[in-house]
Each structure stands twice: as C-alpha cells, then as structure tokens.
Write a structure and sequence with these properties.
Blueprint lengths: L6 E6 L11 H11 L3 E6 L5 H10 L7 E6 L1 H11 L6 E5 L5 H6 L5 H10 L1 E10 L2 E3 L2 E5 H10 L6 H12 L5 E7 L2 E7 L1 E5 L3 E3 L2 E2 L11 E6 L7 H9 L9 E6 L1 E5 L5 E3 L2 E3 L4 E15 L8
Parallel strand pairs: 1-2, 1-3, 3-4
Antiparallel strand pairs: 5-6, 5-18, 7-10, 8-9, 8-15, 10-13, 11-12, 13-14, 15-18, 16-17
Length: 302
C-alpha cells in the first residue's frame, strides 16, 4: 500500500446473509474513487480467511486507514480477530443475516449510507471480550444458542427463515445444563437454558439479550437465562423485541470483568459462529482497545 495515498481495505464475505452481493465491489470502488481514496478489495474464500487477510494487512509497513468487514457478525468477528490489538480501525458494511453488532452501533443497513459513514463517521474505541485466545465483539455464549449456531452452521440454507426453523426444531428436545461460574473470583452454580457473554445488546435482527449493554464501559454483561416453561416463550420474545428482556424474572444479568465458565459439553459460539472445545472458557474484558467507525450521533449511546 502506498505511503502517500490513503487507502481503505474491504474484506467481502461473498456468501454472507441471504442476499446476493450484487455489484458490491463496483459500488465500493466507484464511491471511493470519487472521494480520491484507494479501495483495496478482497474476497474471503473459506472460514477463517477474513482473519488471515486482516492480520496480513495490519502487519504491513503502511497498513490501511481502516479494514472494513462486508458481511454479518461472523465476518466482523474474523476481521476483529485479524486486527487484534493493532489499533487499525474497523469499519462495517452490514450484509449478514442478523448484523447484531452493526445494529447496536447504529450503522445503517443500506449500502450507500454505510459507505458514506466510513468517511463521515467518527472512530470510537470499544471493548473486546477475550475468550481463550479469541476475541468476541458482539455476543458469544453457551447452551441453547450454541447448539442452534452449530445446527445453522451445518445447514444448507441461510437467512432468518432457516434460522427460525432450526430454533423451533431444537427447542422442545433441549435440556438445560448446570454451569459452574467464577465471576470476578466468586464461584457459583447456575442451571441455565443459555448463558450469553454480551459486549453489545443483541444477537441480531434487534433481538436483544442485554438492552443496557455498552461496548465501551469496561464490563461484559453475563446473561443467564434460567429454565422456563414453553408457555413463557411468547413473553420472552416480546420482551426481547421490545428491549425489555432485562425485566424478565427468568433472566439474570451480571456485569463482570473476568469470568470462567465450565460446562459438561464442548459447544459454544463466538459471535454466532459455532465452536467446540468449550468445556472451560476463560473470559475477560479488554477495555476500549479497538477503534470502530460509528455515526457521530451514536458516540454517547453505545
């Protein structure tokens, strides 16, 4: 990359979400050429490729002014893990199934507006959650949503309708598990339907798990959804969509700096991407370590 010319690097996940990325490369190039800025575009080719590409870019002598993830929360997570603690800013062009982190930040869902934001927005340092050797920027966790993430990852179809079918198919057979938690040094046992490690407020599609979560407060929100009867589901969904899930008697939210979670199983998810080897997860918050381009109007709201 040129020392004298400002450049943005774009990493596009060509299979993200349930919409085709029609002409997106051309639109990105045209927008940045007109602004006199070099747009360097890469397509991720396999799981983990966006992380590799991002890491290669930050290790260059002259890294880009920002690395932009074009996709959903999984793509954003890969780019974040490639950027790490380098200080290179993250940009997002939302194009996934849920876009939870982008929605939390108030990033526009329409391409022309999110492109404009990359040049007009402000760089805000946000927290990361380190889970073992990986970084989480949105919501990770264990339990039912980890099982759903695994099933969704191995599904032949994407999108919200496919996700909903998987959720319904898994719900009635699922048995809550007892987890051993160590929260900022204090040990306890909790039987839970799921446990979320929330940096932001939502899973995606404005389905909230921690409405008051902040990505720059130096804490993670440990969300423990205790077992509930099937007839409580409509009320829980209503509260999630109405930003009131923290008022449910089934949900316990604990703000923490460091957490250790032990389970009998192995499944967990990293910002919605299914992972294994999670019988014991060491979790900690890294405070305000990643600059992210956000709308100026949102700086005091995230």
């Amino acid at each position: 990359m040129s020392q004298n010319k400002k450049s943005f690097a774009f990493i596009i996940n060509p299979i993200s979400g349930n919409r085709r990325l029609k002409d997106i490369e051309k639109k990105i190039s045209s927008y940045f050429v007109s602004a006199g800025i070099e747009a360097i575009i890469y397509l991720s080719e396999y799981p983990g490729h966006a992380e590799t590409l991002s890491r290669q870019m930050v290790e260059q002598v002259f890294p880009p002014a920002a690395i932009v993830a074009v996709g959903g929360d999984g793509t954003v997570n890969e780019v974040v893990n490639g950027i790490g603690l380098s200080g290179v800013p993250l940009g997002i062009l939302p194009h996934g199934s849920g876009n939870g982190f982008a929605r939390h930040l108030g990033i526009p869902m329409k391409l022309d507006r999110s492109l404009a934001l990359l040049l007009q927005g402000v760089k805000m340092p946000v927290d990361l959650i380190r889970i073992g050797k990986k970084y989480s920027i949105n919501v990770s966790g264990l339990g039912f949503d980890a099982l759903v993430a695994w099933k969704f990852q191995h599904s032949s179809s994407r999108g919200l309708s496919s996700y909903a079918r998987i959720v319904l198919g898994a719900f009635f057979a699922y048995q809550p598990e007892t987890y051993e938690l160590q929260i900022d040094g204090m040990k306890s046992l909790h039987k839970a339907f799921l446990i979320s490690l929330a940096n932001s407020s939502q899973f995606g599609n404005n389905v909230l798990i921690s409405p008051r979560a902040s990505v720059c407060d130096g804490f993670l929100d440990l969300c423990i959804l205790h077992p509930f009867h099937w007839w409580a589901v409509p009320g829980l969904l209503f509260k999630m969509l109405g930003r009131k899930i923290d008022q449910s008697p089934y949900l316990e939210i604990i703000r923490a700096k460091k957490v250790c979670v032990k389970q009998t199983g192995e499944l967990w998810h990293l910002d919605g991407e299914a992972m294994s080897g999670g019988s014991a997860l060491q979790v900690e918050v890294l405070e305000r370590v990643l600059p992210v381009i956000i709308p100026e109007s949102r700086q005091h709201l995230i």
